[in-house]
Amino acid sequence: MEQLIEQATSFEVSDKGFYGNFGGAFIPEMLYPNVEELRQNYRQIMADPAFQAEFYALLTDYVGRPTPLFLAKRLSEDIGATIYLKREDLCHTGAHKVNNTIGQILMAQRLGKKRIVAETGAGQHGVATATVCALMGLECIVYMGSIDMERQKPNVDRMRMLGAIVVPATSGSQTLKDATNEAMRHWINNPVDTHYIIGSVVGPHPYPDMVARFQSVISEETRRQLLDKEGRETPDYVVACVGGGSNAAGAFFHYLNEPSVKLVAAEAAGQGIATGHSAATTALGKPGVLHGSRTILMQTDDGQVTEPYSISAGLDYPGIGPLHAHLFESGRGHFHSITDEQAVRAGFKLSKLEGIIPALESAHALAALEELSMTKDDVVVVCLSGRGDKDLSTYTKYLD
Ligand SMILES: *Cc1c(COP(=O)(O)O)cnc(C)c1O
What we know:
Elements: H1 2-8, E1 18-19, E2 22-23, H2 32-47, H3 49-63, E3 69-71, H4 73-79, E4 82-87, H5 97-110, E5 115-120, H6 124-136, E6 139-145, H7 146-151, H8 153-161, E7 165-169, H9 176-189, E8 194-196, H10 207-215, H11 217-230, E9 237-241, H12 246-252, E10 262-272, E11 277-279, H13 281-284, E12 286-290, E13 293-297, H14 322-330, E14 333-339, H15 340-354, H16 360-368, E15 379-384, H17 392-396
Parallel strand pairs: 4-15, 5-6, 5-8, 6-7, 9-10, 9-15, 10-14
Antiparallel strand pairs: 1-2, 3-4, 10-11, 12-13
Helix pairs in contact: 3-5, 5-6, 5-10, 6-8, 10-12, 11-12, 15-16
Bound molecules: pyridoxal-5'-phosphate (PLP).
């Protein structure tokens, strides 16, 4: 069955930017020149040996790659499978997001851009963007909802310390959606000298494909490391959490066309799928257009985007990237909705069993392990997307 699906679908983006029924570039006409410039150049720039050399050198010496693939023995014993953790939490800045921002800042330089604009929700992508702008000496403007700026003050302070200008988005609900609108407006008004760094595999083509390729270093390394440790490059399962889907896309990328590898995505059920406080996109969503691409998103019957909720800021997004919508629709990806409580419990479990405090986002992927029926010979790779220091105050509310 899996094999048939595999033959019938391609996981490579089409010329027009589609994965099956999802993707494309649904953008206002004013944005077209910017997006088109990127579309025409990104693959060629990424394939240039000088670009590759610079990208990999920075991943090595600045980000700290390759990240370890760690055999979690006590967790394996507990779950009843052979579990490896891909330690993206050990990347500089504490999560996988910097893999993408390093790639995009080099892309911006090749395109002759002088200024970077980005949007951020909880501030994690804003910090990863401000970091690489400082590294390269490019001006950095980050739009952030004014409510989010209050809720996530430490990340606002980090961005400012790194030299970024943080602009409060004061329209609408004063959160991520409004920050995105205002960042887009900035880009439209400054098309020649500005590059927009998107933080996940979302947005108009070519962003989802470009971001997936920058993050694909995760599965590129995993294959090598697994060969070394297990004598084969392919695990039985790869498990990752999905907000927009960039760490999952990176962890899945070099396994997309290996039907023997089950791809498991953990999305945030929040307080529960049926509670109205959730970000379980595939469980609740329908096809529609969000942030420039056709995908699956949570919406009301008349098409208004629903306000998402999750305990983890990084999964608090009403859609998923178009690649993931296609993985879901085609059956290639297996999606699990994980509640706040399940995630917190899994976060405590990893801390106590392995001495690793995971980000709440990553804890969703760990919780999904409990829902899979595996045997102890099954080899599982979990993408540990980030470290949990930022989530301590949330975790400690559950300490008794
Ligand atoms: C932002 C973030 C996520 C969610 O983003 P994806 O694009 O889905 O990977 C997951 N984990 C961590 C640690 C994050 O910071």
